[in-house]
Amino acid sequence: MIKIDHIAVHVKDLEGVKEFFIKYFNAKSNELYVNPVKGNRSYFLSFGNDARLEIIDKPEIEWVERNFRESGYHHLAFSIGGKDKVDKLTERMLNDGFKVLSGPRLTGDGYYESCICGPEDIVIEITE
Questions:
Q1: What CA–CA distance (Å, rounded) separates 102 from 99?
Q2: How many CB atoms neighbour CB 122 within 10 A?
Q3: Residue 20 belongs to a domain with what CATH number?
Q4: CA atoms 91, 95, 96, 99: torsion sign
């Protein structure tokens, strides 16, 4: 059986992004890993199943503004267990200052979702 073990995302504010996923998605974090050779630091965040998110800060990365309609990475999606939970979390995040990109809404393919622009422009899809 093949499965996705984890997705990795480079971030500028490692601690801030970690706290975001803990606060809104109940992530559990491992201890900070520091690569003594490359100088980057990282956390693995777990969400109660096998999928993990690795967040990495790497000092030498050149940061460029990104367009959400470009090819490549688009969003992370979290299923949180019901339409009412999607509505409540979307409202909570909006009230905390995050931009709602779409929804909550029923999509043409039958998903109930909203999309939020999280820290560092990480697009997060919240589904039932």
A1: 9
A2: 18
A3: 3.10.180.10
A4: positive
CA distance 54 to 47: 12
Separation between Cα atoms, residue 16 and residue 11, nearest integer Å: 9
What per-residue confidence (pLDDT) applies to 20? 97
Structure tokens at 63: 């940061």
d(CA 33, CA 94): 32
> What does the alpha-carbon distance between residue 101 and residue 117 come to, in Å, rounded to a whole number?
7
Mean pLDDT of 90-113: 95
Domain assignment of residue 22, given as a range:
1-61
Q: Give residue-wise pLDDT tens across range 12-34.
A: 999 999 999 999 999 999 999 99
79 with 125, same domain? yes
Q: Which ranges of 8-116 would DSSP assign to H, the alpha helix?
A: 14-25, 83-95
pTM of the model: 0.88
Coil/strand/helix, residue 20: helix
- Give CA–CA dist 96/79, Å, rounded: 20
